[in-house]
């Protein structure tokens, strides 16, 4: 068989197969991620919420057999010796203590519960995310009264390619996503302390690359 004919036949078959595959497949759009806004509306109303990965120390007075240390599962639950699944994510330690007292009341008489957190992760809705031209882009656990300067120290500042004065802060307010201009170059390079702002849980900082 002629080599050129064989080569041409292979090309035709390849194109035919590509057309079949294209006809059998289609591209679908996935829905946008669900937004879970933080419960903190201002810096003075912040309360720590328990999240997956947190380590909880639960003490039940006079009942050491049901007390202990528990890791919050990815589904936001913990398992105790009396109750297999207790939903703990999104609650404050005090709220969880009252909830566990109510649950244990089925098995124990007038239980008194104390909950402390020994390893902090918290819900994603409470973390601050820094993306773009930060030295170490990452998600940061929020700490009460955290400021933009604190966040930038955590991520190691800006890269040499960053356009810090065109950075944007994305924040959910009253269920609506809003964007604010922030001047990171002014804060870090010029020492303009007026550019330092209070951060809130759930904030996203986007740092673009400079155009040279």
Explained architecture:
- It is a single chain.
- By secondary structure, the protein is α+β, with helices and mostly antiparallel strands.
- It folds into two domains: 50-119, wza like fold (2-Layer Sandwich), CATH 3.30.1950; 126-207, Roll (Outer membrane lipoprotein wza fold like), CATH 3.10.560.10.
- It has helices spanning 3-24, 93-104, 148-154, 184-188, and strands at 55-60, 68-71, 77-78, 86-87, 113-119, 127-132, 138-141, 167-173, 176-182, 204-207.
- A five-stranded mixed sheet has the order 7-6-10-8-9, with no helix packed on it. The chain has a three-stranded antiparallel sheet with strand order 2-1-5, covered by helices on one side.
Question: Can you tag this structure with a few keywords?
Answer:
five-stranded mixed β-sheet; 212 residues; alpha+beta; 4 helices; three-stranded antiparallel β-sheet; 2 domains; Outer membrane lipoprotein wza fold like; wza like fold
CATH names the topology of the largest domain as Outer membrane lipoprotein wza fold like
Helical content (DSSP H or I, runs of 4+)? 10-25%
List how many beta strands DSSP finds. Answer: 10
What is the name of the CATH class of the largest domain? Alpha Beta
* Oligomer state of the chains in this structure: single chain
User: Which CATH architecture of the largest domain would you pick?
Assistant: Roll
Q: Quick one: CATH superfamily of the largest domain?
A: Outer membrane lipoprotein wza domain like
Helix-strand sequence = HEEEEHEEEHEEHE
Low-confidence stretches: none
Number of domains: 2
Strand order in the sheet with the most strands: 7-6-10-8-9
Query: What does the radius of gyration come to?
Result: 26 Å
The N- to C-terminal Cα distance equals 58 Å
């Amino acid at each position: 068989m002629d080599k050129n004919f064989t080569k041409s036949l292979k090309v035709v078959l390849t194109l035919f197969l590509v057309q079949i595959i294209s006809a059998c497949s289609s591209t679908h759009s996935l829905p946008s991620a669900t937004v879970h806004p933080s419960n903190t509306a201002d810096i003075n109303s912040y309360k720590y919420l328990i999240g997956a990965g947190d380590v909880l120390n639960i003490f039940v007075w006079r009942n050491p057999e049901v007390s202990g240390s528990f890791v919050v599962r990815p589904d936001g639950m913990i398992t105790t010796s009396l109750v297999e699944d207790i939903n703990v994510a999104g609650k404050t330690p005090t709220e969880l203590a009252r909830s566990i007292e109510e649950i244990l009341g089925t098995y124990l008489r007038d239980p008194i519960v104390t909950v402390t957190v020994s390893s902090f992760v918290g819900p994603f809705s409470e973390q601050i995310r820094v993306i773009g031209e930060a030295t170490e882009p990452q998600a940061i656990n929020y700490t009460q009264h955290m400021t933009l300067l604190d966040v930038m120290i955590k991520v190691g500042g800006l890269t040499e390619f960053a356009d810090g004065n065109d950075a944007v802060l994305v924040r959910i307010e009253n269920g609506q996503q809003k964007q604010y201009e922030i001047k990171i170059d002014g804060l870090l390079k010029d020492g303009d302390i007026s550019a330092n702002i209070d951060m809130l849980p759930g904030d996203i900082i986007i740092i673009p690359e400079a155009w040279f």
